[in-house]
Design goal:
Structural class: alpha/beta
Helix content: 25-40%
Number of helices: 10
Largest sheet: 8 strands, parallel
Number of strands: 24
Strand content: 25-35%
Strand order of the largest sheet: 13-12-11-10-9-16-15-14
Radius of gyration: 28 Å
Distance between the termini: 104 Å
Shape: globular
Length: about 525
């Protein structure tokens, strides 16, 4: 009997071994995080990059692990590499400064040669912000949402704007925040906001909005805040804001997207356009009566393609109603020309759509005999969204839309939406418009905008040349000529540049080489800047 079981046991053991060999070993995954004591992981060019890698979550705390830590440039090429043994917990890392620019730190943790954890984090290297004078004529703005910034973070956000060269910030001076209870005003945060921005040379464009429940024409409605306010109470709010900041704030925008039912409601049976025209004309008189030098903007309109189910909300109709109500209703026309491109949208499609959207408002202004009246794009932007828009392509569009705006002849300023991501969900586009991530770390668009401002601040647009699928925007600056070039389709081409002293920069500001040293620039859908010095 015993002899009978020996081969059976042997057979069962061999089957067990075979089965065990076919069952994959469960990978023990660790959580890897990259942090820094610098808000947003921003460093100056003269200091090392210091990071902390935190490894946690493994089952064996004593397990010896190895980490590959790379510093990558915009193209994903390795700038610096470290390999070291790590244990669970925090590990401090230090890299010599790679120079100004956008970088990513990439950490891969391994055990026995097998990857068990990975993390990436963006890094910015730019000079520190300096206090400076404001520059009202600058066209470069951003929506900052500083009105929601924690007090201890406000100056940091302003400094990050200043480090990018931004000169204007659009902010909601929210009535229900300033005066939540009638007669009880709180200016502390807004005073600090204006003071801090001015120290770093940034002008503030307040959006005068929205209502308050206690002064609404529909106080019991759940949308009381965005419903037409009672004008006498609204007058007091305007007088308080403009009197307080007279001489320090030079322009005001009356409401936000009044042709949107999300942001402006009126009583049933009333015309939304007519009621907004009444609100704007009333506000214009109050503001000008206190500060005649302040410029008044209509509330920037939401794009036609976002309200197509409501023809009565078309921005051209609103502008027409404004003119019908008052002969001098505003000093600057404002609109929000969101072109909503995808990663596959061509540059020409984007610039054509930009002109198309701006034209709805511009055509009415010209028709009324006010062609000399300027326009501000007080909000537009491109969100990162999985499967729709990459970080790299969004950086391209930040430049393309701004450059083309400056070429249109009547656009004085443009404000990118927005400074910082509103959230962390990569699938929600509304959370991903920022030049910065939610933790204030940089995205490529931050560096694209910074490079654009650095090269075009103080420059004057001369002409747009289009030939063989390439758009060439010519600007004159005090130092020489700046050309901004891109392919208008998906193709790359070579363009000859005839100049003795020439520098070429890519979209985020890195110097690029001329092709074969023959004075030729490789032009792609991503913008290139050619600086020709005198």
């Amino acid at each position: 009997m015993r002899l009978f079981w020996l081969p059976v046991v042997a057979l069962l053991m061999s089957v067990a071994v075979a089965c065990a060999a076919e069952v994959p070993v469960k990978k023990e995954m660790f959580v890897v995080k990259i942090s820094s004591d610098r808000v947003g992981r921003f460093f100056t060019p003269d200091e090392p990059i210091e990071l902390v890698v935190n490894v946690s979550g493994g089952e064996s705390e004593s397990r010896q692990l190895e980490a590959d830590i790379q510093l990558l440039d915009f193209d994903g090429r390795t700038v610096a590499l470290k390999q070291q043994a790590v244990e669970q917990g925090a590990v401090a890392l230090r890299f010599d400064s790679p120079g100004e620019g956008f970088y990513r730190a990439s950490v891969t943790v391994k055990a026995d040669g097998q990857e068990i954890g990975q993390a990436q984090a963006s890094i910015g290297v730019v000079p520190a912000a300096e206090e400076r004078e404001t520059l009202q004529e600058s066209p470069f703005g951003v929506i900052g949402a500083l009105n929601r910034a924690p007090t201890d973070e406000l100056e940091t956000r302003v400094q990050l704007m200043a480090r990018a060269g931004i000169r204007w910030v659009r902010e909601g001076f929210l009535w229900d925040r300033i005066e939540p209870v009638e007669g009880q005003q709180n200016w502390e945060h807004f005073d600090r906001l204006v003071d801090t921005c001015h120290r770093y040379g940034i002008d503030v464009l307040p959006v005068l909005a929205y209502g308050t429940r206690w002064a609404s024409t529909a106080p019991q409605d759940k949308k009381a805040r965005t419903t037409m306010p009672r004008l006498e109470e609204w007058r007091k709010y305007l007088e308080a804001v403009v009197t307080r900041y007279k001489g320090r704030i030079h322009a005001y925008e009356v409401w936000n997207e009044p042709n949107s039912i999300t942001f402006f409601q009126v009583a049933q049976g009333d015309s939304q356009a007519k009621k907004y025209a009444e609100l704007l004309a009333f506000s214009y008189g109050i503001i000008k009566g206190i500060d005649r030098d302040a410029r008044v903007l209509n509330g920037g309109f939401t794009p036609k393609h976002w309200v197509k189910e409501r023809p009565d909300l078309h921005e051209a109709l609103f502008m027409q109603e404004i003119y019908d109500y008052s002969p001098v209703p505003f000093d600057v026309a404002a609109t929000h020309p969101y072109t909503s491109p995808t990663a596959s949208t061509t540059n020409r499609q984007t610039t054509d759509k930009l002109e198309h959207l701006a034209g709805f408002v511009r055509d009415v202004v010209v028709e009324k005999g006010e062609a000399a009246k300027p326009m501000w794009f007080t909000e537009y932007g491109v969100p990162i969204q999985e499967g729709v828009m990459t970080e790299e392509r969004a950086a391209d569009y930040a430049v393309i839309v701004m450059v083309h705006s400056l070429s249109m002849g009547y656009v004085e300023k443009a404000f990118l939406y927005n400074l910082r991501n509103d959230g962390t969900d990569p699938k929600d586009k509304e959370q991903n418009f920022g030049l910065l991530n939610h933790d204030l770390s940089p995205k490529p668009a931050y560096f694209a905008y910074r490079n654009l401002i650095r090269l075009l601040e103080g420059a004057r647009f001369v002409e747009l040349q289009r030939a063989d699928g390439v758009a060439k925007y010519v600007f004159e600056s005090p130092a020489g000529q700046v050309l901004v070039l891109w392919s208008e389709d998906d193709e790359s081409r070579e363009v000859s540049i005839e100049a003795a002293s020439t520098e070429v920069f890519d979209v985020i500001g890195r110097r690029a080489s001329l092709a074969a040293g023959q004075g030729k620039v490789t032009v792609t859908p991503s913008p290139r800047f050619v600086v020709i010095t005198r």
